[in-house]
Amino acid sequence: MTASDLNQCLDCSACDLAKTRQTVVLSRGNPDARLMLIGEAPGAQEDQLGIPFVGRSGKVLDRMLSEVGFNLDRDVYICNAIKCRPPNNRRPTKNELAACRSWLDLQIALVDPAVIVLTGSTAVEALLGRRDAMRQLRGQWQFWQGRSVMPVFHPAYLLRHASTDAEGPIELTRRDFTVIRQKLCEL
Ligand code: URA
After folding, report:
1. Backbone dihedral angles phi then psi of residue 33, each to the nearest 5 degrees
2. What is the pLDDT of residues 89-125, one digit of tens each?
3. Distance of CA 52 from the midpoint of ligand 1 (Å)
4. Average confidence (pLDDT) over 29-42
5. Max alpha carbon distance in the chain (Å)?
6. CB-defined site of ligand 1, < 6 Å
7. Whose CA is nearest to atom 8 of ligand 1?
8. What are phi and psi of 12, to 5 degrees?
9. What is the C-alpha radius of gyration for the chain, rounded to an integer number of angstroms?
10. Confidence band (pLDDT; 50, 70, 90) for 130?
């Protein structure tokens, strides 16, 4: 299993999203990072550029990661649960998640991260098969195949709920990423 196995994903036609995508969106960041972050799916800008989290959500995510002390080029590998944009940015279907799952598993095996962050409920569903409310799940360590996994709110949710209250989603997410950073120091 090598990075060139992952490149075969660029020709994937396992589901109908292959018919409407512009590009397959694999990853950005460091493939040797100890932290892997999994989002939902590419949006319009990601689909055009072939890079995950380059739109408004990505800006929020990058700011949050930088504020808690992560170096975006060195410390994190960023990808999505599915690699092709769903039309109109709808939520990926169960079939699409299943069709893309082997690519996600391959990315996890290649990067071999100490900690995985799941941003939003689709990433939680894709990796853990759970559909719990994010309000219950965020900030709670999960364990999956020997790895520490932390669900956090999706950055698009933070854009929609922009309150800076101490108990609001932005501050809670900042706390979650601080806990994640501490965990990486301990492991
Ligand atoms: N962009 C991505 O790449 N993933 C998301 O989940 C949202 C926006």
Report:
1. -65, 155
2. 999 999 999 999 999 999 999 999 999 999 999 999 9
3. 6
4. 98
5. 46
6. 39-43, 46, 52-53, 55, 57-58, 80
7. 53
8. -60, 140
9. 15
10. very high
